[in-house]
Fold this sequence. Notes:
Blueprint: E1 2-9, E2 13-22, E3 25-35, E4 42-43, E5 46-47, H1 49-67, E6 78-82, H2 84-87, H3 92-103, E7 107-109, H4 112-127, E8 132-137, E9 142-148, E10 151-158, H5 162-169, H6 177-193, E11 204-207, H7 209-218, E12 222-224, H8 225-237, H9 239-249, H10 254-271, E13 275-278, H11 283-292
Helix pairs in contact: 1-3, 4-11, 5-10, 6-10, 7-10, 8-9, 8-10
Amino acid sequence: xxxxxxxxxxxxxxxxxxxxxxxxxxxxxxxxxxxxxxxxxxxxxxxxxxxxxxxxxxxxxxxxxxxxxxxxxxxxxxxxxxxxxxxxxxxxxxxxxxxxxxxxxxxxxxxxxxxxxxxxxxxxxxxxxxxxxxxxxxxxxxxxxxxxxxxxxxxxxxxxxxxxxxxxxxxxxxxxxxxxxxxxxxxxxxxxxxxxxxxxxxxxxxxxxxxxxxxxxxxxxxxxxxxxxxxxxxxxxxxxxxxxxxxxxxxxxxxxxxxxxxxxxxxxxxxxxxxxxxxxxxxxxxxxxxxxxxxxxxxxx
Length: 301
């Protein structure tokens, strides 16, 4: 039995998960999340020094927590990976070298395709199902993947994360109707460019912080596409009411939640999804299965 810690460097949040590993698999014994808002520090393809400093601050805190469980980067029991947070920046190697120099830990960038695979791995492990349609909406990107007969039948990563959509299309705290139309048009365009096509209509299993908050607003973890569409329309019609409702659940995500809802509506329409279901799976469990515990998952790539 041993402990393994993972730092998940995302566009919106930076998370730490500590797992206890045994012959049966793994159990999360410690979880922490901090808002890094990394995507907000990116200008002209460069992550600013302030953004690097924010990453360093959170990683330093997490390293101290990980030591409580005897997890350290030096012996591989503390790993750090980045998703869309660093995927689209031009100075990624400088950022990695900077953090390596100050924190003695190497950030491992995960490509969009690798992230989609990890999401698939995690959802398959949690659902114990061989056939499903799944998705993970983050701050910088969204991954969609399909499982058929216990195999990864199709997957795609799209640059349509909720915080990225807010940064690229919205000027105020919440999108206007015109901005919402622009977001939906952009998302549909990116979906058309992708290689993933609609299969047999099936529920869409979803993971990620944005989805968790949407279920909090709806008051349910299983919901119909028309319910999400109706709430989105109400929020666009009454921004003041929308802001009160969102801040009641999570003031930190005021800016990104409605763009995420618009995106999810568009995804559901594009793929003909009627029902959506939230799952507590995450890319971290998928990363653990793919890179730390190969063979523990059921997936075959």
